[in-house]
Write a structure and sequence with these properties.
Two copies of one chain form a homodimer. In chain A, the strands form four sheets. In chain A, strands 4-10-9-8-7-5-6 form a seven-stranded mixed sheet, sandwiched between helices. In chain A, strands 11-12-15-14 form a four-stranded antiparallel sheet. By secondary structure, chain A is an alpha/beta fold. The first copy, chain A, is 42% helix and 13% strand. In chain A, a hairpin with a 7-residue loop joins strand 11 (402-404) and strand 12 (412-417).
Chain lengths: 478, 478
């Protein structure tokens, strides 16, 4: 992002006017389009609002922009000659299309993190930089010879990675499978996107957990699906609820995250797992099992996934490296019946012509390397340490004001607030203090819940971050 | 892919029966699902059909599969206990969804290439392995320290790559832009997918070239767009045709590939370019300019893209590394007004949560490195050499039977066949002889056209490959 040069002899407002004029002439802001507000631009460029007001005045004097009270500042459309030439009405185009934009809270959080990278981040559902195996991956890239063919990949994904995953899934997840049953994706998000786009039609009813990560994904609404809720308690969902929803709404698929569920951290009970598979096979109903967190289990072996104990093949299994290694690799996978793998692979070709071979090569080497086991062990220790730091901070800063269960795996802690406060106000106030979290309503819950991701901030930030949150909460309590 | 072991003491058919039983028990072929045909399986496993027949008989005797005349061989559904348990009807699910499958010819070609990797490949629209800068990329991976943060990327793409592209686009394509106007995509395919999904609604009319690469993309039909044709002659399209289509059908967007058009190789004339931009600004109509081939121009500077001479900002510009470096990197870009970049970036987050950082780092380093210029020079020489080998072979094998214009850039030669033969039969016959091409009808043309990609086969394969094609053609001429 361009910023004005504070050591230049040219005044800041002149530099900004020049930069805007250039961006307008390059087409970033076409004739008639709306410029960012004075406030926003000041924030982006790190200057006072008055400096932007001066820059706008300069451009207005040159006839390049026009401001009208209440409708912001636009690029002039009259400057472009006497003949009626016009640029497409881009804002109308960008409002069209069948893709819904992300929910406002998520966009607000992303915007805040882009503008203030120093915010203490309890919001991004990923590992901190220092928990990712960056050094190991850099070493693998140096050691290995990546001189393979860089053409388009196999539509199901890089074959050696699928072979490595057959071993990995057998060893770590108790899943017996074959490389032809595996589809490599860019992560759980793409797996879910392919399933909702290719196997379901608009109007279809599906069941999702409540609360659930799925509510934060507008892809479910964009695909025109009708969503029905399976309430999550301490043992996870009640399998009997699925039968009720099936009778009432003819649900066509069930989306589940049974191991350290996002956002609640719940582990589905082993009795519930059996009942769930019974209901699914009784109704001939597919289960989509999203399993990104199992290998983070802090102590002991992680629970076996549904897929490993599924007697008739009701399960579409989704896994990923994002939460156990590095989200930036963008490598995930699905295990599914052959017909489904082929269908989704074919559709994905139309969307993006498949994935880059390079991250897949790296992921495959990493799985087979002697780095993988020690990395997992270090990850467990680090996550447990951070979870305990978070709990310590909550107990210190907010005794009696929060309620939560202690998660045994995963990256998140789900927290009920005892005082009643306004979700959006709490978020804004916390951002002002210097931290950010995700309001529970993003996951479909009632107001008054918060998801804290303890894997993302630096360990030494957790205490101060919770202090900021506590301060914001107390201010709103008045 | 598993193959039976010919040195094993176990009979081939027993090995195959064991393997199938395992794949069935793992869920690759759930109860009730259809197995591949005997013929297909024999081909995949490299055995005689009779061996597969014996393996099937074995599995039938065990009650694992059932064959019914005319409806193929299925996994038994009765084996699964007395209670009515059933697996989801996966084939019904895989036929649902709003994504159309790829056109039959494209699937047939992909299948043939998967099963017989030794086919001489005039079909895949990409560079041969030896034309890609694999050694340079491997060297960059060794030399550079990729220890950056491996978290989720900026939704618009890796910032240093966007900065490198600002320089690249200015130097090589005459496009003045800023990093905030650039969206990194996984290639032109994803750029087009985002545009059709996010900026257009089902029922919208759009104009595409005839013939055109777009016809081979079911994404246009999947998005429910109404397609109208702009015939391509030697100078490219007639800009006046756009006005006619706009009046008649209210087209909302025009998709163009002005430089060495796929499949015809045509270069849009410079007079036509100006008229086109006039028509677009007169009608306020967006132009989508796909520009993957410009830098392959065999001699002299490639023509400036529309985007570089577009006075009012009508153009959405699409570029990619796939045709000038390596398709397996999966790195492309769009240059667009700010509102459009933000909208598409937000939608892409929902589909796949953004791209892997690693190929973007590599692409950025490659662009800035001293490897880039020499690579382009070598590419020009090699493409020109292969084009001339193809023309030589056509003149030798098929004098008077084919008509074509000599392309001055790009990877393809577009060829009219003088004799009338059946598209599909010609394809099958050529595959039998050992080569493969794309029938012109895939691009929306009448029967009797062929696209030969001379960039993909090895240089020494071009002559023999065309000899095979000629033999197939002559046989069908009777």
């Amino acid at each position: 992002m361009w910023k004005p040069d504070r050591n230049s002899k040219k005044a800041l407002f002149e530099q900004i006017a020049d930069n805007l004029e250039q961006r307008i002439s390059y087409g970033e802001f076409p004739p008639g389009s709306l410029l960012p507000s004075e406030r926003k631009l000041a924030e982006q460029l790190g200057v006072n609002r008055s400096t932007v007001i001066l820059a706008f005045a300069e451009l207005r004097a040159m006839g390049i922009i026009e401001s009208r009270t209440g409708s912001g500042t636009r690029v002039s459309s009259s400057k472009w000659g006497a003949t009626p030439r016009h640029t497409p009405n881009w804002s109308r185009y960008s409002e069209g299309g069948s893709f819904l934009p992300n929910p406002p809270f998520m966009r607000r959080i992303r915007e805040a993190l882009t503008q203030h990278p120093s915010l203490i981040d309890f919001a991004s559902g990923e590992l901190a930089a220092e928990l990712a195996p960056s050094a190991e991956i850099a070493a693998l890239m140096r050691e290995q010879q990546y001189t393979g063919y860089l053409g388009y990949d196999n539509p199901q994904g890089y074959t050696p990675l699928r072979q490595s995953l057959v071993t990995y899934l057998g060893k770590y997840r108790g899943i017996q499978t074959t490389e032809s049953s595996i589809l490599i994706t860019s992560g759980s998000q793409q797996s879910l996107f392919l399933i909702t786009q290719c196997l379901l039609a608009p109007g279809d009813a599906v069941a999702i957990e409540d609360p659930s990560y799925c509510y934060s994904l507008p892809m479910f609404q964009s695909a025109g699906l009708r969503l029905f809720r399976l309430p999550v308690d301490r043992q996870g969902i009640q399998p009997g609820d699925i039968r009720t929803l099936f009778k009432k709404h003819r649900i066509k698929m069930v989306f589940l995250n049974p191991n350290f569920q996002n956002p609640t951290g719940t582990l589905l009970g082993s009795e519930e797992r059996k009942q769930l598979l019974d209901v699914a096979s009784e109704l001939g109903l597919p289960l989509v099992e999203d399993d990104p967190f199992s290998l983070t289990a802090y102590e002991g072996a992680p629970p076996l996934p549904l897929k490993a104990i599924d007697p008739v093949g009701s399960t579409l299994y989704i896994g990923s490296f994002s939460k156990i290694a590095a989200s930036g690799l963008r490598v995930g996978w699905m295990v599914a019946p052959n017909a489904i793998v082929k269908r989704l692979a074919d559709a994905r070709q139309q969307m993006d012509f498949g994935l880059s071979v390079i991250p897949q090569q790296i992921a495959s080497e990493f799985l087979k390397s002697s780095y993988f086991e020690p990395h997992l062990e270090r990850l467990h220790t680090q996550l447990l340490y951070r979870r305990d730091l978070l709990i310590e901070a909550l107990e210190k800063e907010l005794p009696d004001l929060v309620q939560y269960s202690v998660p045994q795996g995963g990256l998140h802690l789900w927290c009920k607030l005892v005082p009643e406060v306004h979700d959006g106000k709490l978020l804004e106030e916390t951002i002002k203090k210097g931290a950010v979290f995700v309001p529970g309503s993003v996951y479909g819950s009632d107001a008054g819940y918060v998801r804290f991701t303890f894997a993302r901030p630096k360990a030494e930030e957790i205490g101060p971050g919770i202090a900021m949150f506590a301060e914001a909460l107390r201010e709103l309590m008045g």
